[in-house]
Amino acid sequence: MADFHQNGNITTLHDLRCRSAGSLEHEISVYAESRKVTLILPSLYSELEGPALDHIVDELSKVSYLHRIIVGLDRADEAQYRHARSFFSRLPQQTAVIWNDSPRMLALQERLADLGLAPQEPGKGKNVWSCIGYLLSCADSSVMAIHDCDIVTYDRRMLDRLVYPVVNPAFPYQMAKGFYPRIGSGKLNGRVSRLLVSPLLIALKRVIGDRDYIDYLRSFRYPLSGEFAIRTATLPDLRIPSDWGLEIGVLSEAWRNMAPKSVCQVEIADNYDHKHQDLSAEDASAGLSRMSTDICKAIFRKLAADGTVFTSNTFRTLKATYYRSALDLLEGYYNDAKMNGLDLDRHAEEQSIELFSENILRAGQLFLENPHETPFIPTWNRVHAADMEFLTKLRTAVEQDLAEFTPEARS
């Protein structure tokens, strides 16, 4: 995608194929001497057994400028935690594996519950939030980066390009969002971004009129990417959603807290593929069905907070407008795929659009029934105000787990 188009809302940093990877990494290393970089990896234990993470760790072991790697480990028992410690032990950087299900971490969760500040549900949002808390307790990093653990096309140059805009002190960016084409196994992927978010934003603009927030979201080429870098000074006031609206939620927080000129998107890969969620048409609480509902609610909540009034009639109109917009976009996606020799199943794509259109209406009904729903985890500033020792307790718990539960012996 070597182009230089700018949309005027946020800066887009392209890969124009003019610079060697080695020179970019070297420049980052110079900046990182005084602006330390920490990488967060939110991971399920099952991803240690998947096809991607072993290669990701191999690539990260070659990154010279990383000060620390924080792995948030979910759904693991003690033996699995020990195995995870062994799995990540080949990383040369300072590496902390946070066992989110350890007795010490669960005790801290109970403490938060007593304060009325506990995350409402487990998941990636809670994982990332806990890792950010540990990072803040260390108080020694200027830049935080995050990416997923299931990227089967991972290359460490993705990380170089992701962190460069925020680690360069001459740049004004507080946050950089990664983007890339979603292609894998000869197919055009990225269904939720292509078939839900893009046409939904078009439909919202037609139904409720011009909104700066809608234009802002439409500026991102891949708003659902799990890769972003952010300067750590902004983290204590960052609200992390606990549901599947994490990526949209973080963009919304950047909209709330930062000037548009301090947010950019950066091209980090020619091709990106990771594990794919099932559509789960028969189960609204799982897969892309749950994801699509949570994403819609996240967008509706933000627009309502900015003054948009929603009614049942609004959502019925939005559903119909979305459906037409999505079918129009599908025609373009189909032609683009064919021109590039990629497969695109139009029947399956239209089935996805039908499900998403129903979930737009469902999300709207859930929003109207509970307009005060706040799935955001409290900011770390608020936690600190309620318990000034909590971050210290969190760091102590992680370090005691690291000391007590030693890695299993590697074979």
UniProtKB/TrEMBL annotation:
InterPro entries: Nucleotide-diphossugar_trans. Gene3D superfamilies: Spore Coat Polysaccharide Biosynthesis Protein SpsA, Chain A. Keywords: Transferase. GO terms for molecular function: transferase activity. This is Glycosyl transferase. It comes from Thetidibacter halocola.
